[in-house]
Design a protein that fits this description.
This protein is α/β, with parallel strands linked by helices. It has 11 helices and 18 strands. The longest helix has 19 residues. The chain binds pyridoxal-5'-phosphate (PLP). GO terms for molecular function: alanine racemase activity; pyridoxal phosphate binding.
Length: 371
Amino acid sequence: MSDRAEFLIDLSALSTNIARLKKECGVDVLAVVKADAYGHGLIRVSHAALKAGASWLGVALLEEAITLRENGVEAPILAWLVSPGSDFDSAITHNIDIGVSSIKGLREISESAKRAGKKARIHIEVDTGMSRGGFLDEWKDLPTEDFSQVDVIGIFSHFARADEPGEQQNIDQIQRFQQMVQELGDIGINPPIKHLANSAATMKDSPSYFTMVRVGIAMYGLTPDLTHLGTSKDLGLRPVGQLRAKLHLVKSVPAHSPVGYGASAMTQSDTKLGVVAIGYADGIPRIAQGAGVFFKGKKAPIIGRVSMDQFVVDLGSDSTAQSGDWVIVFGDGSHGEYTADDWGRASSSINYEIVTRIGPRVPRIYQSHEY
Ligand SMILES: *Cc1c(COP(=O)(O)O)cnc(C)c1O
């Protein structure tokens, strides 16, 4: 499998990023490892993150949390997208903290806890202005609920615009959060852990820290927002993943050759084309234009449409590349190669989507063996 494409993961870079973020914010760090650790590999990244100083792990799905427990992770784990009807029995058995954002969810968790004869650990999610997850309309009903079967470990919320520092909505969300913490206190519930900040807020908004921050994209060395915060490099982050692939074939073609499906592109002059052995089934966006690969100090842009398993790049007529050579699809940019930021921009998307969509056919190869 690994003879055509691989995602190289530098866990020492991950460790450096976490240590730095933890030092800068001075509160507990929850490492966000949902979606297979943003494509970087759930288990290896989680162990490395804890070793580097994170004290919590955060995932979206219960299955992700259970996989961590089954792989020997004993640190506290919060799963925040656990809908009513989920297997709360397993969550309780595995000592997994559950994010709760509805009365229905809270009641089902209480039922499971009663059956298990053990209190469930929950974090109450509140909607402070994003209108996505969290209590809002049902907040007024919460005071009448029965909390006897749960330990309320945390209260949390999520920013909509943390990647735009200075936006009034960020200030409003912090105020609303403080108010909701207070209202919960008024009914006698005082969770020890209060958390609101994501990566962008952790880097730019110290009033949002409370007792813990939830760090995702920045831990992987990527910028939360190219437009408002600058590149990963501008932020001094070390990108953790490098995607590389093999040139399946290099060949010379004459000027005016149509390239790929739909003949959407044409060679401008006599040139060498490289067929790169990775495609949209592996997460390379089909619409990407303006990115490409890097070989021996030189960028080679995509020409034509990305196919399912491959895409074509224009290497230039003087290229020394040969069939079977490896090229960098994206890396940390230090040699001049394209970055995940570049691929995001080239696809009208963001680096988050580029890394999380790298498919299961691409093996993850870990470069720091101490983890
Ligand atoms: C994904 C997620 C995060 C991490 O966001 P980043 O921008 O990657 O730091 C934090 N909190 C919640 C609730 C999330 O869903």
